[in-house]
User: Fold these one by one.
Assistant:
Number 1:
Amino acid sequence: MDRKKVNMINNAQGKIFENQILAACLGYLYDGRACVDKIPEPFGVTKKDYKTGEFSGRFFSHKKAQPDFQGTVTGGRSIVFEAKKTEKNKIALSVLSSNQEKILEQHYRLGAITGVCVCIKDEFYFVPYALWRLCSEQWDRKYFVPEDLRGFKVKFNGAVNFLDMVNGKAVENMNIFVKE
């Protein structure tokens, strides 16, 4: 399969994953538990035709991208996280751009709940940024495998319930997601 087709498939799968997270965001909002929004992709208009109302544009560099989701959980704490999906057996740390890491680090240092919502094949995890940033030191490698993330597996019911671990714990009550 050519690279263009692979990119189109990966992009479509990424959008489905983000929509599954958005479904959970709506549920959390309805329950009064959290208000979390998807941050739009950086996009710029390159040409406007005022007569027809049409325009051309382009997405900016992946390097300038911010984390995908930001919001507030009950009690007033901020939550900031990136969403990444892979069909491989591991998720590489390099999937985050340097700008995404920088922003997650800033929010982490200020006490926000920070993480990376990950889909490896058909398994869903909400990985604390505190763990993500130390992966190289703890495991002497630059990727996670599902076994590393077992304690951070989240519930899935058509929606990726990123605040609800399968072990019954709630992200907003877990100290590992925030800087002490």
Number 2:
Amino acid sequence: MSRIPDIVKPHLRTFDGGRCRHLTAYLPSITLCMSVAAVLLIVPAAAHISRDYGFFTRDPTQIGNIPRYAGYLSSLGVMAWTVGAAVSLFTSAVLVSRSRDDADPRFFLFFGGFTALLGWDDLFLIHENFILGEKSLFLVYGVIALTGVVLFRGVFRNEATGFAQAAAAAFLLSLSVDAGQRLIERQIGDIRILIEDGAKFIGAVCWAIFLCKIGAASISRCTHE
């Protein structure tokens, strides 16, 4: 596994194992409190836009009165992001008290959080309503991803890296089709949407597989140390 570059180690030392373990102990309570807050937030939100509570709690297909299978690929994509994020954050919590390699838990924490952010974006279409424009937000995501690759480049030498490479290729294809959507749609019609969204979905699945494989390998290795 990779080591953290010397230039960034001083900034990471404050996050020692003891402090991380102390924080981890409070995560269940924090999660529960955030869940309760999410439910209570519906009350002022409903009053603010003059909607009933069901507008916020029911499935969008029920609210929109459309077939339940509408947008099913998008829903599966969000599930893939969620699996990748959950596995990564869980692995980070396990490794923080067991691993001897400082890079291990930080890799999973970094990319677990980033994957959760991408899932949040995919679910609520944040990029399409970003104040500085969609391209600006995609640029930020690209910088975050490249930063993670540089900091944890040793991890990407893992045998599971082929899935990460496939994910990157799929995302680039999806972004390329989106960037040239008008020209491409003139040539191939509505199938352009299938290629764009299908590539993004395959990318999310490949990325989740990558995180699951190296997460399982890291937990297995640290339990046998």
Number 3:
Amino acid sequence: MNRSGLYTALALVLVVGLLFGIYPELDLQLAGLFFDASNKTFPLKFNTLAMIARDGAMWIAWGLALPSIVALVVKLARPDKPLLVPGRTVMFLLVTLVLSAGILTNLTFKSHWGRPRPIVVTQFDGPQQFVPWWDPRGSCGRNCSFFSGEAATAFWTYAPAALTPPAWRPLAFTAATLFGVVTSGLRMAFGGHFFTDVAIAGLVTFIVIWLAFAWIYRWPSTRLSDARIDAALTRFAWPLYRLRQKWRGRDVGSR
């Protein structure tokens, strides 16, 4: 997670944003590669193996986050015990996942950016008008196209890749990139998203991960320790834990 990676991501956001903002028809042309005009559909969305691959991709991503989720739940239930996973790992993985695949995607853009999905625009035999990525005034009411939550989740695998040993990190980042690209390609092939939806999702996710990594691990003024995070979670969960123990006739004291 060096500076060159951040600069590259920011440059790609600028290039993709400007290119597809000036020439929005490029989004339609790329989506059209997956459209069967004779049958007026995106045929891959009916392919069983493709659907299994799509669902499996999300299971893989969430599987990488599962140890940290379990560790957090156990810690909140038993704050007297140490975290099962290092505190910085738990914080880094879950914060980046929630931000990139949850808050920024579903609560911010997809809920308020009315861009219709390819499968429902008039160019692909749908009822709604196409709008470029930068225009939030489309006719989609909810769960809209910009930007892709599944692509953001797939590209979130950059986060666990960043925590691999240095010798394995280039391979891990390559695998995360391929995983994100293939998952994003499937979303496009199903008619669920335009290229800009998945590209910007991946780039924004990478930037979120880069900043979180720097905040938690690198910058001296904000750098955290596993022990500090463990202690903060203990303090947070202790009042409820103490109350539960009192109901059982035990007083574990305050923290």
Number 4:
Amino acid sequence: MDTQPSILVIDDEPDNFDVVEALLDGENYQLYYTPSGQQALDRLSSFQPDLILLDVMMPDLDGMEVCKRIKADPQWQAVPIIMATALTAKEDLARCLGTGADDFISKPLNGVELRARVNSMLRIKQHYDSLQVLLKLREDMVNMIVHDLRNPLASIVLAAEILRFPHLSSEQQQMKVEQIRLAGQQLQALINSLLIMAKLESGKMVLNYSEVNLNTICTSALTDVEVMASQKKIALMSELTESHAIVKIDALIFRRVLDNLLNNAIKFSPSNSQVKLTAECLPTGGAKLQVADSGPGVKEDLRQIIFEKYEIGTLMPEVSQIGLGLAFCKIAIEAHQGTIFVEDNYPRGTIFTVLLPGE
């Protein structure tokens, strides 16, 4: 675990806490103590430990009642509870588990058993926490995908409705058909990126390497974003390597990386600015590609985060941002055994650099 797991010991005898502390010495746990069940319940309103070690036999509120109340509250249900008890009858132990306890340990405590049971419960808690993070990411992903799907879908529906009007000229009809085509391509690109990224992450996609002319693939990528750039009055610049330069890559995957980088650069650059694609072969083998824009730039503390799934850098109004494009680029480039990083494009903007290894 990255941080010290926290353990709350609830026991009316302070000496018992000293025993627990001694038995868990050197285990890198953060131990907390409270002498009564009621105090523990009050404390949980502002503090949630990773594990509770709960004594059964306590005055006022006994351990079974405390356990029952903790497990009845949704915000505490996931915290594992180990009940420490001198009871030995199977019926009593069954009652402990019946109140919602996750495990029990007999008194007097044995160090080997205590450490094993604590480790077991903390491992389960860690798995639970990891699952919650995954579920939260999935929820965020769904929300962002739904948000980004709305624009192209709305464009398709609106254009299709307008095409039903009988008085449209052939030129107007053609414009609406083109609008539908472009929106459909946006949807298809998003879905394809999600599928390819899932395969790359799972290791189920084997890259289809072939020898590709670096100039040709860069020129093709620039040609495909010309319309998008012209709509924003952005000049596309290029500085490409010698015409016979060859790299060994998966052409389809790598082309999608270029598409993502160029599309991002155009989306985030202001009108009447420029986006530049540079490509060169390295003396040591391999190649270096850079996409430079004139956008708002990426703060230094975000330069790693933006390559994680569902994370974005600078929020901009009217700019579709799903937080998947750069994550895809990173996964795809690393699958090629390469690297990708971002730096400042002085005086304004960013430069995304891709380094591909030689054979």
